[in-house]
Predict the structure.
Amino acid sequence: MHKILVLTTTLLLTIGTMAVQAEDWPEFRGKGRVGIWNETNTIDKFPDGGLEPIWRVPIHAGMSGPAVADGRVLITDFKAEDDFYRGTERVLALDEETGDILWTREWKVDYSASHVSMMPWGGPFATPSVDDDRVYVLGRTGELMALKVETGDLLWETDFKDYDSETMGNGSSAHPIVEGDVVIGFVGGVNANVVAFDKMTGEEVWTALNDLKHDIGGSAPIVITAGGARQLIIWHPTAVVSLDPATGTKYWEVPFKAYGNVNPGLPVQSGNLLMISSFNLGSMMMELDETKPGARMIWKAREDASDVDTDGLHALFSPPMMKDGFIYGICSYGQLRALGATTGERVWESQSPMGERARFSSAFLVRNGEDKYFINNDRGELIIARLTPEQYIELDRTQLVEPITRPYNRRRLGAVSWMHPAYANGKIFARNDAEIIAVSLKK
């Protein structure tokens, strides 16, 4: 009996260990869009000479990140043809272990329409979202497709232009999100700004925020559990809104105006706290009602705050991280800052992760463990660091990808890397406008 108990305990411990040794990354910022990589046994220091890719595959331009699921890496790109604006978008499925191309699907696009051509960066913005055996892919001009992960076969498709989409700047950039029986997209239509489609058939289930008199904005939606309910959180240029993801019914709304409709980040939740951060007007923190769907603002940036003169947090592409009552995020000129979550007051800052103090600086933070973070800065470097309430502690850094995207502002390197990587199954998958690579981060 004793031997059986020991064997059973050992087996359970082994299974528990295996559960955190392998983990897919099925959507933007990983499962739940929280930017947390739960795997253990990851490196604390890079090998001498840097990281050597397991494989590298040529691709074309794109701001989208990879999704990793079921042994496949899903990535989108764009190849220009006769000019900068016209060409072909694609989604590729690569073998996770070898990088071999398993299938591709492509479609013609024209970026010359005003709602896309305002932004200089080519290619799709939205990261594919995987749900079971299906992947949902959104092109920059509003083509939403459901494909089989295994084969790339088309299950259904819809075009946001059928809703008279009027999204500006980035085009259709908000990563589609799957919740329950629906996949939800920011359509930006004249009478349908947010649309839920039946995830199996593509049929319209509900529309919401149909009375907006402005662009829906570029922030991606998240789904949280709070107040005893699942809530779809949408940050559009004049407010943060909560909807019932099953019906589209509005639960609550907290006003917050984004300057110039610029809000490419996404809301971040920690317990009963929910925050947003914008480049021009800073951050706002909300407290979620614990008994029913509801929220109230508890602090926001001062009215005269600017991206230059600020002691708060003015994030652009970089979603902040919240843990144990503290916020960690990249501010407008590349300052990594720690703030008190309930007060918004700055605790410390460090320019070290970014090096250069430059406008629109950006980096993606992914937590791995209690206070260990992998940081991908826009210089193409990968940093391992510890972020604590007291300080920033850098453990190591190395060059991961070459920054080749034109930022259209002054930079020492003349180019940036603004694509969120994927962390899955002991590896990091990162791309630029020329290639995608897979690199092991196992000890």
